[in-house]
Amino acid sequence: MRRHPPALLVLSTVLTLATLACGDVARMTGTPEFDCANPPKERVTVAPNELVAAFGGNVLQAETAYGGQKLLQVTGEATRVSRDDGGAFIGLRSGPIGKGKVQAYFPDANAAAFAKVEEGQQVTVLAYLQTGQATDKRIPLQSACLVNP
Q1: Fewest CB atoms within 10 A around its CB: which of 26, 42, 121, 122?
Q2: SS3 category, 57
């Protein structure tokens, strides 16, 4: 007979995961953490279509160029604010449909700012590339902060 964990244990685990801070998300994804109110000044400015082109050519070269400790400043048109298995994210238009997706995942602590974003709005986000997760079809950025709503 299979035993199930007590409901209280399951509930407390879910609540703990749902309230992770930006630093906790950064540690879990292997990305550096930073304070959205005072982000690092050193950044790599890149457009969503540039990321898609880089990852469409050679994923390993693109990870070297945009990954690791590099804070990316990405400006583009918001396509949607949504949630998937990776968490809450804002999609940034990178070209015609089917040409790649840039998704900036943000921690729950930043949700209020992202909740005000509407489809078609120009936004700038600061985020880190999650190395080892990007492909030519999907480019996830982590620990995103909204710079200009």
Answers
A1: 42
A2: helix
DSSP 129-143: E-TTT--SSEEEEEE
Q: What is the pLDDT of residues 20-58, one digit of tens each?
A: 333 433 444 444 566 787 788 899 999 999 999 999 889
How far is the C-alpha of 145 from the C-alpha of 39, rounded, in Å?
9
Q: What is the pLDDT of residues 24-33, one digit of tens each?
A: 334 444 445 6
Which pairing describes strands 138-146 and 44-46: parallel, antiparallel, or unpaired?
unpaired
In 67-91, which positions are buried (b, 16+ CB within 10 angstroms) versus exposed (e)?
Answer: beebbbebebebbebeeeeebbbbb
CA dihedral 104, 106, 110, 111 (to 10 degrees): 90
